[in-house]
């Protein structure tokens, strides 16, 4: 469908460029499909009257006519080239999208093969003081805090590319992006939590990193960091922000581990 549209637009621009203004020395012009200089006459096909006509050569501003014809042709070729380039980009993106499984998850392409980034198992850890307050009173007067953590100090998925590109197939419409993981002994914190004392609402705040995103399909996005990542522990995350529902796909960025 897109290829057909591009072909139609290219033909339209070609037809537009084919129509030339045959300028006259008195400042007027004839809109013509083509023209021929024959001795002391100029023979042209009139777009307005759809027939061949002639006019004396000394009445025609040939220099201006030729300059505009060349300009229109160049503009038409430039536009057609841009349309073809745009169509190629969209075709390449469609091919990318078709290589990503439809199952929710995070993927990347390496050596022309699609690979799966393993989802991390997370643990919810809450403030002990808050837990005691909850047992004493159903309406605590102080807010509590917690964290969502991943066991292990380092991810098993290691990249040396400081601007890794991932594809995320969302399980539902939620926030997503790159998060920086915070070291905590033999674990890594994926998100900080803050619980309201009365309503028990939760605010979820992973340490998000600026990213660039491109939607490839319904629920499918290509995502990469806006700036190169420094060596460290990171994750692709999906979360709602107002409940403990974060999904984490962890990875590490290190240097010199892969050729």
Note down, in words, how this protein is organized.
The protein is an alpha+beta fold. The protein has 2 domains: 2-98, SH3 type barrels (Roll); 105-253, no CATH class. It is 24% helix and 42% strand. It is built from 3 helices and 19 strands. A 5-stranded antiparallel β-sheet has the order 6-5-10-17-16, with helices on one face. Strands 7, 8, 12, 13 and 14 form a 5-stranded antiparallel β-sheet that branches. A hairpin with a 2-residue loop joins strand 2 (29-38) and strand 3. The longest helix is centred in the first third of the chain and has 37 residues, at 62-98. It is rod-shaped. Mean pLDDT is 83; it is low at 1-16 and 129-142.
Key features of this structure:
259 residues; alpha+beta; SH3 type barrels; 5-stranded antiparallel beta sheet; 3 helices; 19 strands; 24% helix; rod-shaped; disordered N terminus
């Amino acid at each position: 469908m897109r290829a057909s549209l591009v072909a139609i637009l290219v033909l339209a621009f070609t037809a537009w460029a084919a129509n030339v203004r045959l300028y006259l020395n008195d400042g007027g012009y004839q809109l013509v499909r083509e023209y021929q200089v024959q001795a002391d006459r100029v023979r042209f096909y009139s777009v307005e009257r759809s027939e061949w006509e002639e006019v004396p050569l000394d009445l025609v501003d040939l220099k201006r006519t030729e300059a505009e014809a060349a300009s229109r042709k160049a503009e038409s070729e430039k536009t057609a080239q841009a349309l073809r380039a745009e169509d190629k980009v969209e075709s390449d993106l469609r091919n990318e999208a078709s290589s990503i499984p439809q199952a929710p998850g995070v993927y990347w392409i390496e050596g022309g093969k699609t690979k799966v980034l393993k989802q991390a198992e997370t643990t919810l850890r809450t403030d002990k003081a808050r837990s005691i307050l909850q047992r004493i009173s159903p309406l605590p007067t102080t807010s509590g805090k917690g964290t969502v953590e991943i066991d292990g100090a380092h991810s098993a998925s290691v990249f040396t590319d400081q601007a890794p590109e991932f594809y995320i197939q969302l399980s539902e419409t939620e926030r997503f992006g790159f998060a920086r993981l915070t070291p905590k002994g033999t674990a890594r914190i994926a998100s900080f939590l803050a619980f309201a004392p009365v309503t028990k609402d939760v605010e979820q705040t992973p340490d998000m990193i600026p990213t660039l995103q491109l939607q490839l399909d319904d629920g499918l996005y290509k995502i990469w960091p806006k700036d190169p990542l420094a060596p460290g522990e990171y994750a692709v995350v999906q979360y709602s922000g107002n409940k403990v529902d974060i999904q984490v796909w962890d990875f590490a960025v290190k240097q010199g581990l892969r050729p």
